[in-house]
Amino acid sequence: MKVIIIGAGIGGTSAGIALARLGHEVVVYDQMRENKPVGAALSLWSNGVKVLNWLGLGEQVAALGGDMASMAYRDGHSGETLCEFPLDPVTTASGQKPYPVARADLQMLLMETLGMERIHLGMRMVGLTDDGSQVTATFADGSTDTADLLLGADGARSLTRAYVTEGMPPIERTYSGYTNVNGLIEVDEEIGPATQWTTYVAEGKRAAVMPVAGGRFYFWFDIPQPAGLPYDRADGKGFLSEAFAGWAPGVARLIDTIDPAVSMNRVEIWDIDPFHTWVRGRVAILGDAAHNTAPDIGQGACSALEDAFVLGIAFATNTVSVADTLERYQAARTERAGDLVLRARKRGEETHAYDPEATAAWYASLRGADGSGIIRGILGNIEDSPVNVGSGLL
């Protein structure tokens, strides 16, 4: 069977690896011209890492991952530690240590594992048709390709999604209410310990660092603000200094350390209301095309990896038809993925002071906490993952 995948991101490449290992002919097209992912890093919680283990990449991913041994919340103004606790219970309960990883490193690993000869960059799909026996993709340069199946891993503004949901009310993105700024810096223990996820909180804002491989921190800031505010990259990081003026020395140090010319991304955060039509004939969607998710619970990439896992299992075990197998994939994924979208949205509402009393109560709950409630929340996001296959949390 020949498979066309549109999108060489985390979901597209992992699905490609899964299907190629089943013996299928896989070809990937992406409009990017080089490996320049949006976002500096991502959280691979235990469910996401397990998918990568299943793909045979366990050792490589462990080498890319940061040693995140503990988690702490600090008061954004004073720098006082509100709570600090180990993350060992996540590993013990799930059977797998989580890792933050640099997105470009993981994406390159996935692309190289799939095989660069299978991946065609600089190719933007502009149309697709399904005649019932084959799917044809048309690209901006006028070329076409035909296959037995097409998977759209083409992101939040997915053309494949528009095809799959044709005739339905338009799928609209929803602004999550804040801007995220992220990037990579060298580890600096004046900001936080080298093996700790450290988050400063105040005013509905957050500033955090997480360890990734290579002696680096992944940093991120959340700033509640309206969508569409003008920003010129030439203005650098001045807006961060303004937004976090008077914050704790660790946050000031973090801002001072950032070199916008080297690593700094400013991204408005949007998501999509859950919907349950992911398949049309021989065409299906996955990843952000199917469940664009805010990053507030760190499950966006993990959910895309779960898509790849279910697709692989579905095509390994079902033989009636391509359309039938895709329907089974859809049935297995939409509820779980939609639940994670809503969990992330709820978490974002709590942390970003959209309801000031709720956020103040959350801050109060952090003071002196032993971490057990936070651990329960993390495990609650992964306990129903399909990759657990009956051997999940203990």
Q: With helices defined by DSSP (H or I, 4 residues minimum), what is the helix count?
A: 13
| Rg value | 21 Å
What would CATH call the architecture? Answer: 3-Layer(bba) Sandwich
In the residues, how many domains can be counted? 1
Overall mean pLDDT stands at 95
Uncertain residue segments: none
Structural class of the helix and strand makeup?
alpha/beta
Termini gap: 39 Å
What is the assigned CATH homologous superfamily? FAD/NAD(P)-binding domain
Strand order of the largest sheet: 5-4-13-14-15-12-16
Q: Name the beta content range.
A: 25-35%
- Percent in helix: 25-40%
Output the CATH class name.
Answer: Alpha Beta
Tell the overall outline.
globular
Q: For the report, how would you describe the main beta sheet?
A: 7 strands, mixed
CATH topology, anyone?
FAD/NAD(P)-binding domain
Please count the beta strands (DSSP E, at least 2 residues each). Answer: 18
Catalytic activity: urate + NADH + O2 + H(+) = 5-hydroxyisourate + NAD(+) + H2O
Keywords: FAD, Flavoprotein, Monooxygenase, Oxidoreductase, Purine metabolism
Organism: Serinibacter salmoneus
EC number: 1.14.13.113
